[in-house]
Amino acid sequence: MKKLSARRRHPLAALVVLLLALACTGGLYAVFAPADKAKAEATAQSLTIDEGKKLYTVGCASCHGTGGQGTSDGPSLVGVGAAAVDFQVATGRMPAATSQGAQLPRKKAIYSQAEVDQLAAYIASLGAGPSIPTADQYGPEGADIGKGGDLFRNNCAQCHNFTGKGGALTGGKYAPPLNDVAPKHIYEAMQTGPQNMPSFPDTTMSEQNKRDIIAYLGAVNTGKTVNPGGTSLGGLGPVSEGLFAWIFGLGALIAVAVWVAARTAKARKS
Amino acid sequence: MSTTETTESRSRGKAPAGERVADWADGRLGIYSLAKANMRKIFPDHWSFMLGEVCLYSFIIIILTGVYLTLFFQPSMAEVEYHGSYIPLQGQMMSQAFSSTMEISFDVRGGLLVRQIHHWAALIFLAAMFVHMMRVFFTGAFRKPREINWLFGFLLFVLGMFTGFTGYSLPDDLLSGTGVRFTEGAILSMPIVGTYISFFLFGGEFPGTDFVARFYSIHILLLPGIMLGLVVAHLILVFYHKHTQFAGPGKTNKNVVGMPLLPVYMAKAGGFFFLVFGVIAAVAAIAQINPIWAIGPYRPDQVSTGAQPDWYMGFAEGLVRYFPGWEVNFWGHTLVLGVFIPLVLFGVVLGAIALYPFIESWVTGDKREHHILDRPRNAPTRTGFGVAWITVYMIGLVGGGNDLWATHFNLSINAVTWFVRIGFFVGPVVAFIVTKRICLGLQRRDKDKVLHGRESGIIKRLPHGEFIEVHEPLSQDALYTLTAHEQYKPAEIGPAVDENGVERKVKGVQKLRAKLSKSYYGEDGQIPKPSVEEYKEITSGHGQH
Fold it and tell me: How does it sit in the membrane (chain A) (predicted)?
């Protein structure tokens, strides 16, 4: 006790007391605050939308307008649907920094999934659009991987490469690599057509076909992919193979040649 | 005395088994004189002389592994449904060529490794030929009497390119199919004959059902057969001409200083073969090549981004990628200049390096034999030309991979393409000038070293306070090596009038030759090497500088 009283005039004492007080109040509030379990579904929904609107006003409205109607800095979000929001925000593409170059890159998501859902609910309330797919829509059950590969090569490989390693588009834009992208996000991308990608609505590509494609990517472009024959050198084909052949193949052989040539037979002393 | 008796008695009786076998063979093959002439054949020692060996050995490895692959490969375009080990292609329709390559990769013992050795060895074979060719070029080893052998080597490189192309097209996968389609486009772009050649090659419209079988014959029989013949001719000529060597004490234009073929080079070359095999096998075990299971079977309506040919065709790919898409209509016929001009350029660029030796010998007018190699710095114009040529080639390669440059260095593909377009014209000029300047600088340095010696790094203070760096005179050997090269005099057109005072007619060609000769060997073309008088004056007079 003596120790404590000795320090009561310490410059940081007031701060410590303040922190303690705040922690106490907060903790007490958390314990005694009324739990809203009893709320009806509809109220929960409208509450989600309300929360989403709050998040939207803080994080998105400066570019997309206060009611999602769009400004000169960002497109209108009326009718883009929850799927588009989930894809853009959960993959970190949105919110975009001021200068992103030619295209928004995939980066660490800023919002938690709960917040993304709230935002999505708000945007969905502005106008009808594709909703967030459920697990049985993009899950691997009943998918035909072989068919998915064929569909992928037919519809996606032009930009995303044979197994989804990505590729270049004009003017610095690009089709991003699909390594370990969540199946839900692949589904949403096909559904909504983000950035330069064309959209593949169910009328163009059925739910089953999308499931096939996702299953194919799961088989050929994840950490668990069976890929015999050694390191795949990025899966980029002959360019990386050529570099490897020159640097490690011929490079090693030249090193060996130098080594062999340096070891010459010595004239025997007679 | 007893020993003599035993040998005498043995010689009267039966000769040892080895001798009898050799005798038997000599009586039928005449190998004794052949062996006598060549067993002690001398080869000089330098690592760069082993680049040709790398080519030879990788070629042998390709043939050996290729034979294994032919045991399982089916060159047929008949459609089958896949039911092999690889899950993601289950139930897909594909050609037998593709499905048998899948079988080689997944179900044949050692099949994938041999396939990968075959393909990696091909890439390394071509790369080694490229480097070997550049070694011969930069050291002037193509000069008389080796011009024909230079052409043989060049032909091997070009044939290697097409053997590689027909080879990687065989599995009928989506990547190589795109390459074959590209080739068809290039053939079609040829005015008048293009359509006929294309229909002849593919047996009708692309892709038809024939090209795999035809490419197979070309890939395993026609081209390798010609190449094998050329390789043998190439080697015979190497034996016949004897190997070139770098200048040095004791080495003249009339001798070869080195080690005998037997036993030294037999052991070295034999060992080197296994080292080459080992390195290629290790590369093939470490890294995947052409994973057709990931690429998928070819269908003419499908295409993937990042579709490049193997590296040796990448330069042609680049030319087409960066050439503007020009197209003209000519009497109702479309001329696709955007493809046809690159096709011509492809031949022109390759032809330029092939014909260079003849241009140089015309400029020098030198009809003598050359067995001593040049150091690249002592032939600045040639070295500059070679580097300029490599620059054009490499710019083509960058252009061929423009999409990967764009994605991996966060660039715009349009910017890469424009860089390459401008670089195609500016790059070689800059490379030529810079290389020539560097060569001249190195020549000056050599001259300085000969006249003033090597900088020893020792600083001496003289009694009157002056500091000097002690230069150590070079050894006799080093002095010889640095001054052994001969320098041409620029060719003169001759006097404007003949002995009778009549104006001489000078042809334009002669003027061109004189001009070229001046740029090669004039004041700006080379630094006069130190003469004996210069050397004596500096070294005898007032000691160290």
Answer: Multi-pass membrane protein
